[in-house]
Amino acid sequence: DNGTSRRLTDEEFDRYSRQMIVPGMGKEGQLRLINGRILIIGAGGLGCPAAQYIAGAGVGTIGIIDGDVVELSNLHRQVGHSTSRIGMKKVDSLITHLRDLNPLPTYIPHPFPLTPQNAASILSAYDVILDCTDNPATRYLISDVCVLLGKPLVSAASVRTSGQLIVLNCPPAPQGVLADGPHPPCYRCCFKNPPPPHAAPSCGEAGILGPVVGLMGLAQAGEAIKILASALHLPTHTGEANLRQPTLLIYSYDLAGAVGPYTFRALRMAGRKKTCFACGEGSEGRLTLEGIKDGTPDYEVFCGLNATPKGGGL
Amino acid sequence: DNGTSRRLTDEEFDRYSRQMIVPGMGKEGQLRLINGRILIIGAGGLGCPAAQYIAGAGVGTIGIIDGDVVELSNLHRQVGHSTSRIGMKKVDSLITHLRDLNPLPTYIPHPFPLTPQNAASILSAYDVILDCTDNPATRYLISDVCVLLGKPLVSAASVRTSGQLIVLNCPPAPQGVLADGPHPPCYRCCFKNPPPPHAAPSCGEAGILGPVVGLMGLAQAGEAIKILASALHLPTHTGEANLRQPTLLIYSYDLAGAVGPYTFRALRMAGRKKTCFACGEGSEGRLTLEGIKDGTPDYEVFCGLNATPKGGGL
Amino acid sequence: MGDSAADDSKIPITVDFSGGLEILFSNQRHYALSLPAADKDGSPSTIKSLVGYLLKELIKDPRQDLFVLDGHIRPGILVLINNADWELEGEEDYELQAGDNIFFVSTLHGG
Amino acid sequence: MGDSAADDSKIPITVDFSGGLEILFSNQRHYALSLPAADKDGSPSTIKSLVGYLLKELIKDPRQDLFVLDGHIRPGILVLINNADWELEGEEDYELQAGDNIFFVSTLHGG
Ligand SMILES: [Zn+2]
Ligand SMILES: [Zn+2]
């Protein structure tokens, strides 16, 4: 029994009725959500809206990992926190909000940063991973661990007036396998090398508009919910071929102009690459869970290699 | 003095710092937001996320109008409410949430439905109007009043897995004026006749997915914020020409498939139409604020005219 | 479009449905179609010809009145020709060109 | 593209910037350009030729190293040829065609 045959409680029926009558969701999709486990890495501008809609939809187990505390300058965009919770751990603040929205899911706080040492043990307990973080080193770490654990990854990022979203590693293929492809890409397949540090500013340095990062986080929730509800991460599913055309969604918000043909663009990306460090040919020999724990690769060094600090980045 | 030359308080500086450093916003844009007044009509699936980001951004006066109370079946998508506030007026519930997010704006509750009798007096106190409602009759009413009062209108709608967004009447042109155009369209220019009632189901009847309606509401916040911050609704602004290419954004979420080239589409719409009942040639003779108050046109009849009730709508 | 290029009595076009209209068309949002280049009377195929073709060949749902009323696209459906409102292009009388994309969108009112 | 059609030594293309790269190009996200059809040595214009043209003619910001490092597009910039990853099309050696859209996107990491 995969848990999709039990009855729904009266409260579940009432609470989820409007989404259950959508064609393609139904009781089966709802039970897949209730039995599903999503990890949200980062409780900031992406993680807040993503968490609201994932909790609202009734995903049964929701983990949130973040080591930061709520600050006043977060609140223009991090709408799952509040002025009265400034100084609280972001994870606890967000879960407070989510629990009042929907008390039914199990919320699991991880109130500390994701590290090469703790990543595998945390990610292994979830079905779908959301990368809502804010730095290149953590993004490469998350993707590598997702490849090794076979987890689908919904990755988004946003700075200033731009946003990006891509679903990776879905459905997951074993590391190093290239036959019977194309297989879906990992983060390194799409973004082989990190930018020089001065060209990869954070939202703190370069600024960010709330509706831009919010929209990307909400789109992440939409992708995560469809993956769980339609079981798109399971290799046997008929949706597989569809998800194998990897697409990078680009959002270009224009503060001085209207929505237009360039506002949203869907870009065709390549699949798994033979030359990929993490999932390509021979990758089993260079990327392992044990190695990551022991400091290989060194993500900080990898993302700082090209460091030639200059004023003002992109 | 248009109020954009005062100093920001320390709290404002800290709270809005991350959006103020975005190119194009700056202190001037922030002060335009602080001096701006936005009315959100509908505190449901569109209005909740729109309000969160409009409040977060620091828009100084935020009115919300809705006559409904919070129900359990709202909460999967109406993330500005909560389980503990079930039974409360939606307007009061949402403002409770917003005030904790950002106590600085002035929140104005209108805890009753928008009607032909109260529409003009309410809308006249705001700079930008958001249509976050759920039925055709109210949508035509809002647009007509926006034409007559010269208010820009950010209109969105969502059912099941689809969403739509369009900025109307921006910058506003006087009713009936066709010279020196093209002028921006009103709702009736784009959507001349309502569908037969059985083809226009509500979210309650046809269902709705949280991330779909949420994304449209968030996109509305983005458009409203850019209109205020860049003063795009003022006829003298250089952004005018840009906003005069009216664009209908269509979101087609696919529960069974990945993001792709058809997920977002930007459609070129016509400008103000000579034949438009509300803003076209001779419209001053058939649509007035006094007439609307007195029941002409009758929006219920207009939207029920083609009524031939049948099972299951679109 | 490839293989129909040699047959010049056919026009390859794509047709999309959104806003719920896809439910009438087997829940499929995107179609690649090959239409006769001319109507029976020899005049070039138009949007009107396409609508006739959709009703005859493609619609599976019995609720055809949710798509066409009194011989015309029902109120509340937008028709886009290559991403532009069909009112910019001549409405039903627009003559189809190879490669055209015709997009039918049902207007939404929920929120 | 119109007026350059008569001059067959030019290729009309469009070039877009996103993810912050537009800041280097006068904060403009969309450009319609007319490029020489061949390099000085007579070989067809490629993405590499385009990058040279952008550095010579279009970039206004002195921080050219945010766009090109050691003669190549810097790490952290995606190049899309007609909406597809350039690795699907031959990367810098792709030969430009009339009407091509080349899209440069800086990879984002914030959240
Ligand atoms: Zn890879
Ligand atoms: Zn009009």
TrEMBL record, chains C, D:
Annotated protein name in UniProt: Ubiquitin-related modifier 1
Glycyl lysine isopeptide (Gly-Lys) (interchain with K-? in acceptor proteins) cross-link site: G111
Keywords: Cytoplasm, Isopeptide bond, tRNA processing, Ubl conjugation pathway
UniProt function note: Acts as a sulfur carrier required for 2-thiolation of mcm(5)S(2)U at tRNA wobble positions of cytosolic tRNA(Lys), tRNA(Glu) and tRNA(Gln). Serves as sulfur donor in tRNA 2-thiolation reaction by being thiocarboxylated (-COSH) at its C-terminus by the MOCS3 homolog UBA4. The sulfur is then transferred to tRNA to form 2-thiolation of mcm(5)S(2)U. Prior mcm(5) tRNA modification by the elongator complex is required for 2-thiolation. Also acts as a ubiquitin-like protein (UBL) that is covalently conjugated via an isopeptide bond to lysine residues of target proteins such as AHP1.
One GO-annotated biological process of the protein: tRNA wobble uridine modification
Positions where 1-thioglycine occurs in the chain: G111
Family the entry assigns: Belongs to the URM1 family.
